[in-house]
Amino acid sequence: MDGRQNAALVALSRVLEDASGIVGTPAEDILVESLVLRSRTEEPSPLPPAFFIELGNGLSYWADTQGNISRVDKSTVDNEFRLRFVQEGGLAGWRSEYEADETTLPGSDVAELRRLVEDADFFNLPGQVGNGHPIADLYQYTLWIAVGRNNKEVQTFDGTGPHESPPLETLIGWLRQRAPEPGPIEQTR
Question: Whole-model pTM?
Answer without folding.
Answer: 0.57
